[in-house]
Amino acid sequence: MKHSRNLVRLVLLLALISIGLFHMPGGGLQNKASANKAPCAPPSAVAAAQISSWVSPPRVGVNSDGRLEVFAVGVDGALWHIWEITPAGSWSGSESLGGFPNSRGFLEVERNAYGLLEVFMLWRDNSLWHIRQLASGGWSGWESLGGVLRSAPAIARHSDGHLEVFAKGTDNAVWHNWQVAPGGGWSGWA
Question: Does the predicted model carry a pTM greater than 0.70?
Answer without folding.
Answer: yes
